[in-house]
Automatic annotation (TrEMBL):
Keyword ATP-binding: yes
InterPro entries: AAA+_ATPase, ABC_transporter-like_ATP-bd, ABC_transporter-like_CS, ABCG_dom, ABCG_transporters, P-loop_NTPase
Protein name, as recorded: ATP-binding cassette sub-family G member 8
One BP annotation, GO: cholesterol efflux
Annotated Pfam families: ABC2_membrane_7, ABC_tran
Gene3D superfamilies named among the record's database cross-references: P-loop containing nucleotide triphosphate hydrolases
Molecular function GO labels: ABC-type transporter activity; ATP binding; ATP hydrolysis activity; cholesterol transfer activity; metal ion binding
Chain residue ranges for the region called Disordered: 1-20
Chief location bin: membrane
Keywords on record: ATP-binding, Cell membrane, Glycoprotein, Lipid transport, Magnesium, Membrane, Metal-binding, Nucleotide-binding, Translocase, Transmembrane, Transmembrane helix, Transport
Taxonomy of the source species: Eukaryota, Metazoa, Chordata, Craniata, Vertebrata
Length: 366
């Protein structure tokens, strides 16, 4: 796949303009096929550092008897040499344990990173560097923390967003229809007239609030959907249904990127592509179905009847209970990350493929 592939329409007609990031949306139902052209998201050789000392105000550090400009930061690598490429029709899951850099990566892609600095690499959306304006127009981002108006009910929240974000060509009936669709899809009917609430104001439950945040972004439904841990706080049945919804959306010519800790096996099977992150480095990036063969080829076969995501996330997790264990886990994950980089060095899309296969999977191939 060449770098310009994302600029062409599925029918081969050239050039993707900013205006085409929006679909013409003739169909008001949630599962319309996105007709705004093919999107491609590329992360190239990204290196991102955070300053863990930056949160401490300079005046509190004066006790160190140093002038503010002499105080050295404490740099920690949050993302290390990460590359990936994903396009419309694919659902990519970033999998890894807590603190491995999932939120940092999604925040960098959506220009919402704070307190860190990109020391190298770039993020491209349809071949153009990501800017806050481009992100705002083209990406729906569900953040890990819910940011909603606590005094509105669930339906009011969605009706409000429908008014603001759906194209002006939508009639009121179509807007209401979309709100109903999203409420039904995310199983919010029973709490549609309950206020959303927050940490201080009692409202819907935590899992329901999470689904309202997702519903807000599903409503306006652009070509690229990014979700940070959409399944956290949900029971496994609801989580599975939610990922099925996302998978259906991806099938409708959308690009879906989500992060998840340790998905259960039936959720894992729904992903087209996965990136396994350990301490900010990719230890695997490729088709979900090729992950077990990949690690088996490195001498880490997945035991029978074991969920591959459980097994491999445990393998690459960093145990920080003691410095010795931490060093041992870091050593293992560094070796795995290096071996992965060696294996994909010659590829054009930074994805591992078993010998003999030639393309990354999309929903259409399933
Ligand atoms: N602005 C920041 N200042 C200090 N440290 C940061 C900052 N952003 C990220 N980090 C650190 O970078 C690492 C990755 O953080 P990130 O939030 O991306 O992890 P995560 O994979 O999303 O974890 P979780 O699954 O718990 O949400 C963590 O060790 C975190 O403490
Ligand atoms: Mg996170």
């Amino acid at each position: 796949m060449d770098a310009d592939a994302g600029l062409n329409h599925a029918d081969g007609s050239p050039q993707h303009r900013d205006t085409e990031l929006f679909s013409s949306e003739d169909d008001s139902s949630l599962y319309f096929t996105y007709s705004g052209g093919r999107n491609e998201l590329q992360v190239n050789d990204l290196h991102y550092e955070v300053d863990t000392a930056a949160q401490i105000p300079w005046y509190e550090r004066l006790s160190e008897f140093k002038l503010p400009w002499d105080i050295k930061g404490n740099k920690q690598t949050a993302i290390n040499k990460l590359s990936l490429r994903v396009c419309s029709g694919q659902m990519l899951a970033i999998i890894g344990s807590s603190g491995c850099g999932k939120t940092s990566l999604l925040d960098i892609i959506t220009c919402r990173d704070e307190g860190g600095a990109m020391t190298s690499g770039q993020v491209l959306i349809n071949g153009k560097p990501n800017t806050p304006q481009l992100v705002k127009k083209s990406i729906a981002h569900v953040r890990q923390d819910d940011r909603l108006l606590p005094h509105l009910t669930v339906r009011e929240t969605l009706a409000f967003v429908a008014k603001l974000r759906l194209p002006t060509s939508f009639t009121q009936a179509q807007r209401d229809q979309r709100v109903d669709d999203v409420i039904a899809e995310l199983r919010l009917r029973q709490c549609a007239h309950t206020r959303v609430g927050n940490d201080y104001i009692r409202g819907v439950s935590g899992g329901e609030r999470r689904r309202v945040s997702i519903a807000v972004q599903l409503l306006w439904n652009p070509g690229i959907l990014i979700l940070d841990e959409p399944t956290s706080g949900l029971d496994s049945f609801t989580a599975h249904n939610l990922v099925i919804t996302l998978s259906r959306l991806a099938r409708g010519n959308r690009l879906v990127l989500l992060s998840v800790h340790q998905p259960r096996s039936d959720i894992f099977q729904l992903f087209d592509l996965v990136v396994l992150l350990s301490s900010g480095s990719a230890v695997y990036c490729g088709a979900a179905r090729d992950m077990v063969p990949y690690f088996t080829s490195l001498g880490h076969p997945c035991p029978r009847y074991c969920n591959p995501s459980d097994f491999y996330v445990d393998l690459i997790s960093i145990d920080r209970r003691s410095p010795e264990r931490e060093a041992e886990c870091l050593q293992r994950s560094t070796v795995l990350a290096q071996r992965f980089l060696e294996k994909v060095r010659a590829t054009d899309n930074h994805m591992w493929r078993p010998a003999g296969s030639n393309a990354a999977p999309t929903h259409t191939e399933r």
